[in-house]
Design a protein that fits this description.
Chain lengths: ~110, ~180
Amino acid sequence: MTTMSEFERLLHSALAPVEPPGALTERLERRLTELTDAAVDELAEFDPSALRDPRQWGRLVTAGVVAGTAGGALILVRARQKQRRSEAHGLRALQNGLREVSGDMRRRLGR
Amino acid sequence: MATAVDKLELDREFSDLYRAHLRDVYSYSYYRIGNHHDAEDLTEQTFLQAYRHFARARAESNGRPLRPWLIRIAHNLAANYHRDRSRRPQTHLEDAAVISAPHGTEEIVEEREEVQAVLAGVAGLPEDRREALIMRFAIGMDNREIARALGRSEGATKVLIHRAIKQLEERLKEDESDDDE
């Protein structure tokens, strides 16, 4: 192992890490949240009847994916549980599950 | 829906990456750009771009740390920033004002002058050497991480850092002896 020279110590002190300003942290977290919120909106406004069209399923999954906050994860887990419980009812069960998911998301977001 | 749940896990991992390396990206950006305002923009753009490409980067990382990938994004954005600035008409003074010490004003003047001399020396180094020193000393990256961030071999990176330190040390000694005369 090499020892640090006096000059390297000076470099360490000159190039000390810089704390990001609080305003940046707030702004950045807001921007990242906006990305997930956009997906939440898409999911909440999704017309369940469109699920009859398999081409729309990818859109739904994508919306769920981007809405990946801890709350979003919980919501999706619940949607899967509901879907599993009523698997015999197929598409209708999934539609109902999605309506509840949308309502849940709106409540969480205070909309 | 299994894919969606996997992706939710991915988003949580991204949050962890963000929290762990926000200071690294900001420090790197600050020392590359030289002012807080643009360093903030660069940091923001770095994380937004990282968010968009996180899934692929994670898949290709084979479990290796993602900090070098994150810093490489910041490195590319900083290069774009400098290229855009060089196209715009500006005074030489703007060019020269590369880095100033971000530390508090209570530090003693002598130490501050020494630090400013080092920062000016770093700013005057060739780009690859300057990059390597910022990664090593401001962020604490090891040779392997720096090599990945710069797209070089570990051996070449070790040599690069050694030469950067040597060049900087010699330059500062020369400046000191010029001042003494």
